[in-house]
Amino acid sequence: MTNPSEIPALCDLNASCAALDTLRSWLLDLLCQLAYQEGDFVLSSGQQSSYYINCKQVTLHPAGSVAIARLILPLLPLETEAVAGLTLGADPMVSSVSVVSVYENRPIPALIIRKEAKGHGTKAYIEGPELSPGANVVVLEDVVTTGQSALKAVQRLTDAGYSVDKVIALVDRHQGGAELYQNAGLNLESLYSINQLQTRYQTLNLDH
């Protein structure tokens, strides 16, 4: 991985106003430089993998988070009333999308889904503003592998009376997540595929 100081500075690419095509290419490079690693890894699903993608290195990067939000916003259906995701991976994404949506004159609330119910107070699974029954919510995910994380968020949201039919991911590893969502009546849209990421990684020659 490359040191964050080696990533183009904001004066070279202003994530808040760069053209979306430029931003998409720059964000892919950022993912390759900061998030993607090759080696021997065990994923949260228990699967063995020859590579690992730690998207938090990018979703918590100041320019990276703005870039992600600006690229996700156009993918949200017009009727979207909130974005949501399962803690911890989706937390920076839903927060940045919500904040940037205000500057795009399209304010969209953020919801964070707990893995376990809060142990005190309301004992809620969902943190954030309460929406009207049937509100349309889009679930965000950083990396989709088997799809179980986002599906758990969808289940919590539907249990709360909300409507969910779309998941947006930063990277799709193409390991069954899309098929799982399709069987559950959900559409998956990702900013990047694992093939795009690995091809760009090799082009940048970051393993040397």
General description of the model:
It is a single chain. The chain is α/β, with parallel strands linked by helices and 208 residues long. It has a single domain (4-204), classed as 3-Layer(aba) Sandwich (Rossmann fold), CATH 3.40.50. Helices cover 36% and strands 22% of the residues. The chain has helices spanning 20-35, 56-59, 62-72, 91-103, 148-159, 177-183, 194-204; strands at 36-42, 48-53, 82-86, 110-113, 126-127, 137-144, 166-172, 187-193. α4 links the parallel β3 and β4. It starts with 19 loop residues before the first helix and ends with a helix. Residues 1-11 have low confidence and may be disordered.
Layout of helices and strands:
Elements: H1 20-35, E1 36-42, E2 48-53, H2 56-59, H3 62-72, E3 82-86, H4 91-103, E4 110-113, E5 126-127, E6 137-144, H5 148-159, E7 166-172, H6 177-183, E8 187-193, H7 194-204
Parallel strand pairs: 3-4, 3-6, 6-7, 7-8
Antiparallel strand pairs: 1-2, 4-5
InterPro entries: OPRT, Or_phspho_trans_dom, PRTase-like, PRTase_dom
Binding site for orotate: 145, 173
Organism: Limnospira maxima CS-328
